Amino acid sequence: MHMVINESMRLYPPATLLPRMAFQDIVLGDLYIPKGLSIWIPVLAIHHSEELWGKDANEFNPQRFASKSFMPGRFIPFASGPRNCVGQSFAMMEAKIILAMLISKFSFTISDNYKHAPITVLTIKPKYGVQICLKPLDA
Ligand code: HEM
């Protein structure tokens, strides 16, 4: 379940951009970042980068999270470092409990009416909603 939720948040990170500001001059490799510069960390682009994730970067493949040997910094749905999300563990636990309750009682199929149209309005969301047909497992 952890792998499935991670892969969903890799393809559709709720926070697609993270704003930062340099409080001092910083040298990052070849890059010089002067004090006061506004920086946007492009989470969506990092999560979809073929260079970082391979040719199947746009495919849904939870298996890529099976390995523990994980390159840090390329998966940042909750940001990273001292200002990362304080609700990260709570959010993951909540999602797992809700998913576990749902999949133990229902099977799911996506409705024919579903249109795949993710948009960013502060956070990423499905423009036309997600219409899902639930079938009770014990019916
Ligand atoms: C899927 C759910 C969530 C996602 C994807 C998410 C994502 C994020 C991200 C990316 C940041 C960093 C923003 C930045 O530095 O610019 C952040 C910060 C934060 N999040 Fe979350 N969050 C989630 C759920 C929650 C929940 C459930 C709580 C509280 C119960 C929470 C509380 C916070 C707080 C307080 C911060 C600010 C931390 C700081 O600045 O030190 N988040 N979150």
TrEMBL record:
Single GO molecular function: oxidoreductase activity, acting on paired donors, with incorporation or reduction of molecular oxygen
Keywords: Heme, Iron, Membrane, Metal-binding, Monooxygenase, Oxidoreductase, Transmembrane, Transmembrane helix
GO CC list: membrane
Compartment list: Membrane
Transmembrane segments: none
Membrane topology: Single-pass membrane protein
Gene3D superfamilies in alphabetical order: Cytochrome P450
Highest taxon, organism lineage: Eukaryota
First-listed, main subcellular location of the protein, grouped into a coarse class: membrane
Residues annotated for heme binding in this entry: 85
Cofactor: heme
Xref: Pfam families: p450
Name under which the protein is recorded: Cytokinin hydroxylase-like
Annotated organism of origin: Trifolium medium
